[in-house]
Structure formats: structure tokens, C-alpha cells
Amino acid sequence: MPSPSPMLEYAFFEGRIVPFAEAKISVGTHAVQYGTGAFAGIRGYLDADGETINIFRLPDHTARLLNSAKLLRAELPFDRDSLAQTIVSLVERNAPTGDVYIRPFVYKASVQLTPRLRGMDDELAIYMLSLGDYLDTSRGIKAVVASWVRVPDNAIPGRGKLSGAYVNSALAKDEAEEKGGDEAIMLNTAGKVSEGSGCNLFIVRDGVLTTTPITGDILEGITRRSFLRFAADEGIPTAQRDIDRSELYLAEEAFFCGTGVQIAAIGSIDGRPIGDGCPGPITTRLRDLFFDTVRGRSDRYAEWVTPVRRRVPAAAD
Ligand code: PMP
To answer: What digits encode the pLDDT tens for the residues 54-68?
Structure first.
């Protein structure tokens, strides 16, 4: 995270809503020691009406989190809808006045020494923070191809948002920043382009919006899926196929996307300019569609938005 982001007052912890400061776990917790957790990152946007928080693709996020939990063999008393409803209740309770980022976390809660998945207590915690842009969305950012290889599916599955795997992201992100970049591009064990440290990647080649397939050691990003749909609806040709490193340097446009990143145009990769270094026409079109959707300025994709009316907490709350 760039600058310290203020936490909102309440969190969901061990089955109920508590003050964020009380949502604490033991240092011996299995998930802390071994990274046996899974998380989601969900954004809520302040609607153009100034009153409503629009949660983007909430049931898709809760479904993916439950799939990540399944990979961890975690058993939780939630389904996709009851988990979504729990998140809505927390948003209502926090009554945010601006954009928020919601972080649900499923974790192995036992204090236990053996690195295993079976036979342990599983818990769910959710907290929220105010969050603006994670990467600059207005200019072309600098991407660097990392020497750290994306962790393959047969080591730690990238399609689960598994906590321990983020050491891999952190190594790549540090490398990119230490080389003067903003974000890393990771290659997979086959040497093909996978994704960024916390985002998926698209390039435009010969007018075709192209991204790595879901079998390319990537997270099956919900923003990625949304942009593929926007493009299809706009008549922009798309392809999901392996991307070579050299294609990055020849792309007409390139951008990262993800819940935190939103859409960040790439101005250069390894110091080589992409297009004229500024957000290109396809990137700009997709960006406008995305922000019109999440800000409630267009109802074309209204089914992707869960609106939560801000309610002023009653004195008894
Ligand atoms: N890849 C990685 C490694 C990520 O952490 C994220 C952020 N969740 C993404 C891609 C983008 O996924 P989404 O659009 O679902 O946020």
C-alpha cells in the first residue's frame, strides 16, 4: 500500500462486528506462521449521488474467496450470498463517506506447529479502509519485468488469493521499485507473461486486446473479466493467449488492472516506451466505461454493482 490508509472503525471478527482495534489474533496463529490464509480485495465507490457506496461485483468476490478457502480446505459457515450480506452489514455499520477498500480474510486460526491444512479451526475476519488510487490512473506508469518468476499452479495456485503466495509478489514489487519502476511484470515458469504483483495485465497488439489465459499462472481477476466483457460489448477484438516478453515491447498499448489498481496505463516497460507513453484509445475507452459503472453514472452494467445506502448510525449503535 502506498501511503498509510485510515482504517474504518468496525471490523467483523470471530462471528461479530467489533471495533477494529479489538480484531486481534495470536502471534502463534497458523496463518501468520505459514501464510495459510486467503483474502479478497473489494472496492466500494462513492456514487455520483454522494450518498451511496457502490460495491463492485460483490458476489463474484465472495464466490472467489470461497474457492480460495476451498483450496485451503477451510470450512466456513458462509455461502456466497451470506458472505456478501455480512460485508454489506459491515459497510452499513461503518457508514463510509468516501471510497473504501474491503478486505475479507479467511485463515487457519489454530495455534499449531505442523504446516498442514486439515483438521484446523478456520475463521473469517473483515476490515475496511479508505483508499484512493493505488497506482496512478491518469498517466502512463513504468513497468519492469521482474527476475522473480511467478509461482506456478503446481507450487502454490495463483488462482487462489492465498496469503503465503504474496511473498512472491512482494519480491517482484521491490525489484521493480528498486529499478525505478512503479509495478512489476512477472513471467511464469514457461517464460511467458503472467501478471503484475497485484494486478492482471493487458496489451493491445494489432488492435487486439490481449491477455494471459487463466491457465497462465495468474489470479482469475474480476476486473480482468470485466474488461473482457466491456471490450466484447464495444466490438473491440480480444484474445486470451500466451504473451511473449518481446511482445510487451511491441505493444501499441498496455495496462494493469485489478481491484486495487483499477486501470493503470503503462507508459514504458523496461524503459521502452509503449505507444506515445500516454494512455491509448482502447485503454481510455475501457477506463471511462469502468468509472462510469462504479460511480453510478451509467446503469449499463448495473447488475455488477451492489448499492449500499449510507445510514447515519443511531445513538444506540
Ligand atoms: N493478480 C493478483 C496477483 C492480484 O493480487 C490481483 C488483485 N486482487 C489481481 C490480479 C486482480 O484481481 P481482481 O481484479 O479480482 O482484483
So the answer is: 999 999 999 999 999
Residue whose CB lies within 8 A of the most ligand 1 atoms, among 194, 199, 218, 263, for a mutation test = 199
Cα 302 to ligand 1 centroid, rounded to whole Å:
22
Residue 189: pLDDT band with limits 50, 70, 90: very high
Tens digits of residue pLDDT in 218-264: 999 999 999 999 999 999 999 999 999 999 999 999 999 999 999 99
Long-range CB contact pairs, 193-197, < 8 A, 24+: 193/242, 193/243, 193/244, 193/245, 193/247, 193/248, 194/150, 194/158, 194/218, 195/150, 195/158, 195/219, 195/221, 196/143, 196/256, 196/258, 196/261, 197/146, 197/169, 197/170, 197/172, 197/173
Answer whether 259 contacts ligand 1 (Cβ < 6 A): yes
Predicted structure pTM score: 0.95
Q: What domains lie within the chain, and their CATH numbers?
A: 10-130 (3.30.470.10), 141-294 (3.20.10.10)
User: Which residue minimizes the CA distance to atom 12 of ligand 1?
Assistant: 221
